[in-house]
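Why should sequence recovery work at all? Because a backbone constrains its sequence more than one might expect. Tight turns favour small or flexible residues, buried strands favour hydrophobic ones, and helices have their own preferences. The token representation captures these environments compactly. In the example below, the structure is given first.
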């Protein structure tokens, strides 16, 4: 993660928390409570994205999220291609 600043790392982590929370919340029946479960992680991610300067810069954000992913092992399938315009 060379060159990743603390605000960028915090933004990527907040987005990953939102992703995991959304997957868990949407894995069962969707109820009125589902939106309430997502409100805090959405607000946290929005705030972190703004602090890091990622608002509207999805390619840079996705690069930081990929940086947080554990390295693939030899038995894992090939990683998905990075988005066009990616920094790597």
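From this structural description, the recovered sequence reads:
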């Amino acid at each position: 993660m060379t060159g990743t600043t603390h605000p960028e790392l915090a933004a990527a982590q907040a987005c990953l928390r939102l992703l995991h929370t959304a997957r868990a919340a949407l894995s069962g029946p969707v109820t009125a409570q589902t939106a309430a479960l997502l409100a805090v992680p959405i607000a946290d991610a929005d705030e972190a994205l703004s602090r890091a300067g990622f608002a509207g810069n999805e390619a840079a954000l996705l690069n930081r999220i990929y940086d947080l992913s554990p390295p693939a092992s030899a038995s894992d399938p090939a990683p998905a291609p990075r988005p066009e315009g990616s920094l790597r």
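A few observations help interpret the result. The chain is about 60% helix and 0% strand.
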